[in-house]
Amino acid sequence: MSDRQTDALSRLWPAYGLDVPDGPVVPVDLADLFGRRAPVVLEIGSGMGDSTAAMAAADPDRDYLAVEVHTPGIANLLDLVERAGLRNVRVAQGDALSLVSGLPEDVLDAVHVFFPDPWPKSRHHKRRIIQPTHVALLRSRLRPGGVLHCATDWAEYAEAMKATLDADPELVDAYGGFAPRPAHRPVTKFERRAITAGRPVADLLYRRR
Ligand SMILES: C[S@@+](CC[C@H](N)C(=O)[O-])C[C@H]1O[C@@H](n2cnc3c(N)ncnc32)[C@H](O)[C@@H]1O
Fold first, then answer.
1. What is the CATH number of domain 3-208?
2. 43-92 pLDDT, tens digit each
3. Any residues with CB less than 8 A from the CB of 175 and at least 6 apart, and which?
4. Which of 18, 41, 65, 69 to mutate to test the pocket of ligand 1 (most atoms within 8 A of CB)?
5. Burial level of 81, CB count in 10 A (0-12/13-18/19+)?
6. 29 is catalytic
7. Fewest C-beta in 10 Å: which of 12, 61, 69, 181?
8. Ligand 1 pocket, 188 CB below 6 A?
9. CA distance 106 to 112
10. 95, 117, 166, 203: which one is catalytic?
11. Phi then psi dihedrals of residue 163, to 5 deg
């Protein structure tokens, strides 16, 4: 980590961080975490935090909860949060599915899964975040009408995501197919690399019934 990230992590973690322990599920009280009751967007696998920070800055009436395992990415997001003076971001460290298990049902306004690890080998597909049981868990934490938004540059994963999301009886495809690229999703390193390599990026937006 850079000195700046190390410094940001040590100073800002107590106020903005949430530890997600391995093992027993820990309940999370979102109003307590953010100090207010506002719609909450969950950002799964926030990476270096650029998307989270940009979207939270543009959307101050909603709160953004990022979850990531990678410490430098968490530190970088905390640094971005401080530099932009954001009050509507919190950062959880640990496994996204453990965090989601600790949330009450029907509470999230949206769940973002942008450029999740594609796990391209067939024998590793079981590690993918977008698969039926995980989708059922994520969807159960969305409020009715809440949005699950996924994006990937991995064509085979995009088709698998679509099949999985189409098969969930509680989700409705908001666009009847792949969605046009939404302007509110910032371009990150992963998307720039995909564009340079000529790989199309697929967005999928589904609403909970
Ligand atoms: C390919 S990166 C994409 C980062 C970011 N969403 C973006 O578009 O720039 C995927 C991220 O998901 C994180 N990740 C993978 N599995 C995770 C899990 N179970 N819980 C939380 N984060 C996870 C990885 O550490 C990595 O930073």
1. 3.40.50.150
2. 999 999 999 999 999 999 999 999 999 999 999 999 999 999 999 999 99
3. 205
4. 69
5. buried
6. no
7. 61
8. yes
9. 16
10. 117
11. -60, -40
Provide the angle, in degrees to the nearest 10, between the axes of the packed helices 71-84 and 3-16.
80
* Residue 50: C-alpha distances to residues 15, 74, 75, 96, 186 (Å): 20, 11, 12, 18, 8
Question: Best mutation site among 41, 46, 51, 153 for ligand 1, i.e. most ligand atoms within 8 A of its Cβ?
Answer: 46
What pTM was computed for the model? 0.97
Token pair of 110 as six digits = 């949206």
The pair of structure tokens assigned to 200 is 């199309």
Residues in contact with 163: Cβ distance below 8 Å, sequence separation at least 6, in sequence order: none
CA distance 126 to 128: 6
Provide φ and ψ at 110, rounded to 5°.
-160, 155
pLDDT digit string (tens) for 115-124? 999 999 999 9
Residue 3 has pLDDT above 90, yes or no: yes
Q: What is the DSSP code string of 8-25?
A: HHHHHHHHHEEE--SSS-
Q: What integer best gives the mean pLDDT of the chain?
A: 97
* Domain spans of the chain, in order of start: 3-208
**Residue 161 phi/psi, 5° resolution?**
-60, -45
